[in-house]
Structure formats: structure tokens, C-alpha cells
Amino acid sequence: VILAAGEGTRMKSTRAKVLHEISGRSLLGHVLHAVSSLNPIETRVVVGASKDDVIAHLSSIAPHARSVFQEVRGGTGHAVKLALQDYSSDGVVMVCAGDTPLLTGATLTKLLAAHSSAQASATVLTAELPDPSGYGRVIRNPDGSLSKIVEEKDATEQEKKTLEINSGVYIFELASLRSALTKLSANNAQKEEYLTDVIAILKNDGKKVSAFLADDYTEIWGINDRAQLSTCSFIMNARICDALMKSGVTIVDPMTTWVDLSAEIAVDVRLEPGTTVKGVSKIGASAVIGPRTTLIDCDVATGAHIFESHCESSRIGPHSIVGPYSHLRNGTVLTGNAKVGSFVEIKNSTIGDGSKVPHLSYVGDATIGSETNIGAATVIVNYDGVEKHATVIGDHVRIGSDSMLVAPVTIGDGAYTAAGSVITEDVPPGALGIGRAK
User: Fold this and answer.
1) Is the separation of the CB atoms in 346 and 363 below 8 Å?
2) Alpha-carbon distance 245 to 267, whole Å?
3) Between the CA of residue 244 and those of 230, 252, 265, what are the distances in Å?
4) Among 30, 78, 115, 359, which one carries the catalytic annotation?
């Protein structure tokens, strides 16, 4: 059961808190990914604020998960009641918060093992924080066993000094949990039914309750505001960069390099400072990316070099060079050994093997053959104000500087255009096209 119904008012956002993203994945998506490692029989997500948006997101990232609507936010205990009200099977249930993106499947696996080993009715995941402000405190008996969990608003000054906190992650035996949920009360500062109170109820019923201390306290950090979102983003990115470097990727400055979880980066790739790799980008072996380069959903082949550039939904072929200050837009394909240089924008176009668009040009809706050179300040005029039109440029073509190619137009193999020309008619293979004043 994942609790994702909160308003998230401190985020100051029109979006549901659990839909905010770090490292290319929503907060809720991170938690779903962590729990998936346990292969649960069923996953239920309690939704509330912005429920339609959250449900739509769920259907795209975890269609197997079932949403449960909590119309009135009556607390975590009330949310779990709703999640279980038509679930009659026995076994165990894990309860997680939907805003803890740093939680890992490895820790949840250890928690489940500890619960089974202790033969407890409930086990709570805890952590010791340098600053526990805002979290419910875990109070232990002198022998180290769990005494109770108290919410900060209801804690005494002495209890607030405790560094060990409740992560909001629990494992319960279902039969014991169902019985305890019937005894919950909203007689507290928030007038809500706390799931934490179940721990005290189980202990009063003589049930065994245990606590498992997480190795890394950052895993249980919840996100309530933009500052915490930024902190968790930094930690997640540090994890990603560390894993990449251990796999054979050179990251010159991990502090300024940001990589999404969905990116694939091969060995001997070099990421220079200020590089961002987002979406489903894939980078082949020995490529060099950066400095100050952004890739979004790009496929970069072996040995390519992209620097000081912004590329989206593009394919950069082997040993191609892009930059500085290039903008590759969606649909751009460099087949191999191509060169795209300073202040060049390319969209929905294919650049053939060994061809060059070195500087100050726009290429849109075009197909360019191999070993062709596009002179400086060339513009492919692809839009007539209503529709886009295609331009075809053959192999071994030389487009003169400051040419305007008015689509639809074809420049044949081995043809030329004179510098400063406006080309409005097809240029046959081997011919010279001139369209300028004397």
C-alpha cells in the first residue's frame, strides 16, 4: 500500500506532490520501482489530491497498480483502512509513503527479511537523522526494544530530542493490522487516525512489534517542499553518477553533471562538466559529451563528440562532431562522420556520411547526402506559412555561403549553388545554380 493522497501544500504547486520528478522519474514512480523488487501480489495506491492526474500517471507507469480514493483526508490509518476494506486475503502488507524517492528495493528486502526473522506482528523501518524535525519519533525501551512511535506534534520536549525517527514504512501481518485498525481514534492534535497508533495498539494487545534501523538515513527522507526536492535530487544524482563511474564512465565533475535514471551510457564515455543527459538517451562507447551540453532522448553512437550544444530526440552517428552552440531538434539524424558546427539549427533532417553544416545555418525537413558541404549562413526555407516542404540535397554537393533553398527543391549529386543565391528551382546533378542580382 502506497500512501499518495496528501495535498502537498508546502510545495506551492498546482501539481500533486507525488508527480514532481527527480532524475527523470516521479516521486511516486521511485517508490513503485523500489517496492517492485519485492514482487508484491498486489499494489494499491491511495490517492486524494489531484486524483485524476495521479491516476492517469499510474496508468502509464504502473498499470497493474490499483488506485484507492481517499475523499476526506482522515490520516494515514484511515488511508490504510480504505486500501484494505475489500481485501480479504491473509499474509503481510507493506505500507510506504509516496513521497520517499530515495528508498531502495535493497533496504525493503532487508526489512522484509528482518520482519520474517523476528516473527513480529509489525515491523517499522527507522533511521537516525542529524535533524529529526518534522518526523515522528521512535521511542525505545531501555533494552532497545520498541516502546512507541509518537508524532512530533504530540511529542514531549524530551521525546523530541530523540534522533531515531519513523520512516513511514511498515510491514504488518494482515490479521493483526485489521484488528488494530478498528481501534484507531482521531483524538489527537491533527484530528486524524494515525497509522503510528497501530503500533501501540498491537503492543497493548500483547503482539510483538519490532523496529529495523536503515543503514542510510537519506533513504527515508520525505519531500514536503521545493528545498527538500532539490536535496533529494542531488542525492539521487550522486548515486547515479557513482554507479556510472564504477561501470567505466568518466565523469569529470559529478557536481555539475546530471543524468536521468533512464539513460544508458557505455564504457569509456566521457562526460564533461555542465552536461545533462535526460530521458531515454543512449550514449555509445568512447563518445565525449560536453562541456555544457544537454541531451534529451538522444541516441549517440560510438566515438561521437558533442560539446556546448543542445540536442533533443536526435540520432548522432559514429564519430560525428556537434558544436559548439548547435541546436539539434527532434528528428535530426547524423548518419556518421558528420559535422554540425557553430550556431547551426537542424530539425527533422538527415545529414549523410561525412557531410558538414559548419556554421550559421538552418536545416529543416531536409535530406542531405554524403560528403556534401553546406556553406555558412545557408537557410533551407521549408515553411510557406501554412505547410512544411521538403528539400533534397544529393551527394558531393557544394552549397555556397548565404544561399536560400526555397522548398520544395532538389539539388542533384555533385551540383553547386553560388554564394548569395536564392534557389527556387531544382538544380540538376553537376550543374551550378545561381539566383542573385548582378
Assistant:
1) yes
2) 9
3) 21, 12, 8
4) 359
Whether 359 sits among the annotated catalytic residues: the reply is: yes
3-state SS assignment for residue 265: strand
Cβ neighbours of residue 33 closer than 8 Å, sequence gap 6 or more: 25, 105
C-alpha cell at 29: 514512480
Contacts of 2 (CB under 8 A, 6+ apart): 28, 31, 32, 35, 43, 44, 45, 46, 65, 95, 96, 97, 98
Grid cell, residue 146, equals 520498541
Asked whether 180 and 198 are in contact (CB, 8 A), the reply is: yes
Q: Residues 165, 155: contact at Cβ < 8 Å?
A: no
Residue 91 · residue 178 · CB < 8 Å: no
Is the whole model's pTM more than 0.85, yes or no? Answer: yes
Average pLDDT for runs of 10 along the chain of length 438: 93 95 98 97 95 96 96 92 92 96 97 95 95 89 86 88 93 96 86 88 92 95 94 98 98 98 98 98 98 98 98 98 98 98 98 98 98 98 96 98 98 98 98 92
Q: How far apart are CA 31 and CA 337, in angstroms?
A: 42
The strand ranges marked E within 202-301 are 209-213, 250-251, 258-259, 264-265, 270-271, 276-278, 282-283, 288-289, 294-296, 299-300
C-alpha dihedral sign at 194, 195, 200, 206: positive
